[in-house]
Amino acid sequence: xxxxxxGRVLLVEDDQAIATVMIAALEDEGFVIEHCTxxxxxxxxxxxxxxxxxxxxxxxxxxDGLASLEPVRNDAPDMPVIVLSAQNxxxxxxxxxxxxxxxxxxxxxxxxxxxxxxxxxCGTRAARAQSLPEAEDDGMPLVGRSPAMQGVFRMIxxxxxxxxxxxxxxxxxxxxxxxxxxIHQLGSRRSGPFVAVNxxxxxxxxxxxxxxxxxxxxFTGAVAQAIGKFEQANGGTLFLDEIGDMPxxxxxxxxxxxxxxxxxxxxxxxxxxxxxxxxxxxNKNLVPMIAAGTFREDLYxxxxxxxIHLPPLRERREDIEALSQHFLAQAAEEGLPRRRxxxxxxxxxxxxxxxxxxxxxxxxxxxxxxxxxxxxIDAGSLHDIVGEEQLAPAAGNESSGGVIAQALGxxxxxxxxAHGTVYSQAIAAFEKxxxxxxxxxTSGNQLRAAKLLGINRNTLRKRIGELGIxxxxxxxxx
Length: 478
Description:
This protein is an alpha/beta fold. It has four domains: 118 residues, Response regulator (Rossmann fold); 151 residues, Rossmann fold (3-Layer(aba) Sandwich); 74 residues, Helicase, Ruva Protein, domain 3 (Orthogonal Bundle); 75 residues, Homeodomain-like (Arc Repressor Mutant, subunit A, Orthogonal Bundle). The chain has a five-stranded parallel beta sheet, with helices on both faces. Strand 11 and strand 12 form a beta hairpin. It is globular. The protein starts with 6 loop residues before the first strand and ends in an 11-residue tail after the last helix.
């Protein structure tokens, strides 16, 4: 093969099926590709030629593609490296970030996204940012191999080297505080304090004092000066949980503090400079609260700089087994009996609704560990200890089905279609909002949206173009 095309790419991938597909896609874009399957072959290629970008798997035939990157970095510091991995854990995502990877893609990945990343890498030759600090604890509390959790891991790694404000959303029990802790412990502020405050648990008349502190005599009962959470978190991270329950007056003072970087204790006259990173979280939808006047729009945009959404457990059932094993090991470390789950018990757990999300799963596992008579917990033991539960609806049915059913009912009521035309008119009326809803549910990821809709991705792309839909509108900002 001759010619430079758009650039030279070294693909280090020992899965031949994946390599074949990627080579075809990249060659279609005009790239010249060299392919190898091992660390040794990679180093041989790099010693002979220069490449514009390298794509590498983590687990290769003769070693770890990430662990062996240091000499590559020394010899070719400006060559962007894109990491591909089936080891889909937060630790792997962080290791990829530690290695100064240009981008990280967990398998299975969207081929179009990888191609776009290669185009961007070759076009920009972006300067490498400084190394990410090592995690203090290799056993990360966030567990999950599902595509949804891989998206969460990737978002976390993108905010580790900066102090941008993060808004974590998700139902109760999904692990929002764990995300905040991971951002703090793995980021540049890990040597500073991590201070968490649940704004929903503080009486409205005390929340300003709790956040900003107070001077002696500021109000009845203020018998001494008190330092607030902002000052306590100085140099570190302040986690504001359940921010949607914050009273309006406190919202105003919080906005002022975020804008100025200064706070004033209740009853005080002196402004105090504070240097904190803010991570906020809520289980509420703040947008309708803005419309209702119960949450400040300017505060929302100040907090929602980098949004991270934690999916409910029912939308990532493939993570239940790994989470269960994590909690079994955790319980054993805390002195409870060491148990294991039979396959039938895991399958039964995967069918439950998990309205309490990961927190509920943890409680169930601990209850099973404590009360099971045998070391192996089977489906019978599960039933005896925690009882039966109605099977959860199929993923996606709860949200999209309800939305479309409500919209269809309203359309039929308002349009009064002619006899015999309901089907064609309904399809014409609802295809675009249905596709837009699926894109919204998947943050603009067309592959996942196609799976959610149960159609081929090429069909979805064709309809997106014909209907004039812009998928970029649904992508969460990074």
